[in-house]
Amino acid sequence: MTEGRESMMRVAAAVAAISCVLGASPVSAETPNDPWEKFNRSIFRFNEGADRWVVGPVAKGWDFIFPDPVENALDRFFENIRFPIRLVNDLLQAKPLAAAEDTGRFLINTTVGVAGFFDPAKHWGLEGHREDFGQTLGVWGVPPGPYLVLPILGPSSPRHVVGRVADSAAAVYPYFAFFWVSAAVTGTELINYRSLIDDDLTAEREAALDFYVFQRNAYTQYRENQVRDREEDESDSSDDLYRFDDGQ
User: Fold this and answer.
1) What pLDDT, in 10s, does the model give residues 135-153?
2) Residue 123: CA atoms inside 13 Å, Cβ hemisphere, count?
3) What tens digit of pLDDT does each residue of 207-228 get?
4) C-alpha angle 206/239/104, rounded to 5°?
5) N or C terminus: fewer CB in 10 A for the chain?
6) What are phi and psi of 156, to 5 degrees?
7) Rounded CA gap, 216 and 200, in Å?
8) How far is it, in rounded angstroms, from Cα 64 to Cα 67?
9) 0.85 surpassed by pTM
10) Are the C-beta atoms of 212 and 42 separated by less than 8 Å?
């Protein structure tokens, strides 16, 4: 119990510190705050090179081996095992209905849906929610801070970095598997997800005059919409480019 109270106190202190540090550096979808642009662009170039020469080719090979139905089933499986992260953040954001719907989806898809490879819950009217601790901090009033590009992981913000660390504690399977197993699962999820968005990513690269600016603006708008619970435009495929960033 003492350790639990100390952990909660540390989280509260961290949230307070983040609010103070980031409060002077607001960022919005309309005017992205990017004081670290020089650094961000260097990481962006590294990520683009890694994607073009390593991740992208591996994903294309993956796509050649596995048909779309298999890739989609794997994607649903990975979404299903992130249930604890979504549930915790549903509750932290005071969304009992979302928590109930996500719990129902997990129970149905884990059983009837064979460990989540299928999604019968969606056909029964239970839509999923994409909640993570970065969003929770935003709901609590913590500003995102400057735009930040992370190696391999891509677009982010200081608030989302803190959120990713907190969400990792809510993920269940790493506690029951060796590190190399957890790393293999994450790597498989990344490659599978990358293969699913290959066409969209190629189209966005070709259409953008400056892909760095496009990615920055699209990401900040996407995260802003998530925090404010705005309805996403289903025709905007760019939203899916950042879905892997949720709840990791």
Assistant:
1) 999 999 999 999 999 999 9
2) 7
3) 999 999 999 999 999 999 999 8
4) 150
5) N
6) -165, -165
7) 16
8) 7
9) no
10) no
